[in-house]
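$ ./design --mode recover --in tokens.txt
reading tokens...
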């Protein structure tokens, strides 16, 4: 989801000054990591009174950043030190779930959306609320993007622009909002959540739904490797691959490491990382490459190296991703029991 634009940004000079102090502290005490000394305290202090987190400290609690902060606290932070914080966050998630099993963008809204997948994923990582997870995944399995409907595909065949797109319209992924169009990132996260779910919680038809969504991702790969947010071709012009959609798609498709599409896209990702300047993009790329057993490119910066630029603009989601990237444990990504394909 797109974060709100109402946050106040910290002046670059003060960011650099604070970053210098942090660097000095880490030099004096090298046993304390950047994540432990900076990222986790920031995440804990940003929790709102209702138990959730906003996209930035002080903003209204939203489901999506709450999910990512909980993932970081479950899998990176000291369990005892974060227990109360996590319990309050889980309570916020459970209270935000709608009667149909989905989660809305924000508590109080009445329509579920793509944040249902990360909410299910966070609850799976916490090993709690199986009924809530099952209801959420059932909603996901029933959500059918309209772009795969027969009438829509038939109308596209009659369109004068039909020759400019190679998109296969019958494959169904997931959209940002229900009943709309399939997009790469929500499809990838939904696939990961379904893949991590124990068999007893999977809804009927989940395997067929996953197969269609995986086919949709491969169909949307850009020429030359990688993914952008949606269609790989726009009016006959190849789309430009982006790091974040590419990382998510590759993580979702990590069960097929030998497929040509995966290898070509991994190569694209590694070649383009040295030019990447977004800490969130770098964090997801690091998680992705490690999932495939690839080493980090020597010429690429680590996500934490960019903190002195602007302190990640205060983004709780980015800070959580950096925590997850810096941690060698990957149970949140692989699950203790991988479901069979």
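writing sequence...
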């Amino acid at each position: 989801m797109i974060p709100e634009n109402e946050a106040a940004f910290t002046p670059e000079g003060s960011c650099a000054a604070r970053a210098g102090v942090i660097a000095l502290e880490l030099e004096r005490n090298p046993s304390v990591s950047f994540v432990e000394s900076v990222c986790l305290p920031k995440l804990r202090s940003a929790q709102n009174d209702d138990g959730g987190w906003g996209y930035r400290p002080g903003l209204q609690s939203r489901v999506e950043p709450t999910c990512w902060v909980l993932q970081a606290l479950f899998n990176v932070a000291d369990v005892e030190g974060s227990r109360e914080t996590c319990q309050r966050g889980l309570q916020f998630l459970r209270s935000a779930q709608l009667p149909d099993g989905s989660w809305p963008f924000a508590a109080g809204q009445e329509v579920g959306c793509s944040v249902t997948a990360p909410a299910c994923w966070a609850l799976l990582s916490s090993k709690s609320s199986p009924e809530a997870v099952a209801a959420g995944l059932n909603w996901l399995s029933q959500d059918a993007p309209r772009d795969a409907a027969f009438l829509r595909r038939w109308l596209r065949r009659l369109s004068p622009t039909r020759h400019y797109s190679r998109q296969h319209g019958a494959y169904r992924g997931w959209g940002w909002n229900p009943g709309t169009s399939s997009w790469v990132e929500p499809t990838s996260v939904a696939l990961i959540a379904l893949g991590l779910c124990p068999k007893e919680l999977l809804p009927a038809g989940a395997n067929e739904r996953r197969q269609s969504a995986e086919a949709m991702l491969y169909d949307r790969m850009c020429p030359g490797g990688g993914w952008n947010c949606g269609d790989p071709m726009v009016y006959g012009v190849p789309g430009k691959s982006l790091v974040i959609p590419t990382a998510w798609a590759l993580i979702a498709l990590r069960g097929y490491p030998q497929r040509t599409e995966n290898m070509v896209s991994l190569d694209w990702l590694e070649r383009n990382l040295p030019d990447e300047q977004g800490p969130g993009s770098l964090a997801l790329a690091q998680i992705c490459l490690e999932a495939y057993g690839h080493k980090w490119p020597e010429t690429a910066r680590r996500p934490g190296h960019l903190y002195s630029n602007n302190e990640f603009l205060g983004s709780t989601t980015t800070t959580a991703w950096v925590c997850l990237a810096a941690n060698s444990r990957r149970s949140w990504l692989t699950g203790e029991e991988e479901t069979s394909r």
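exit 0
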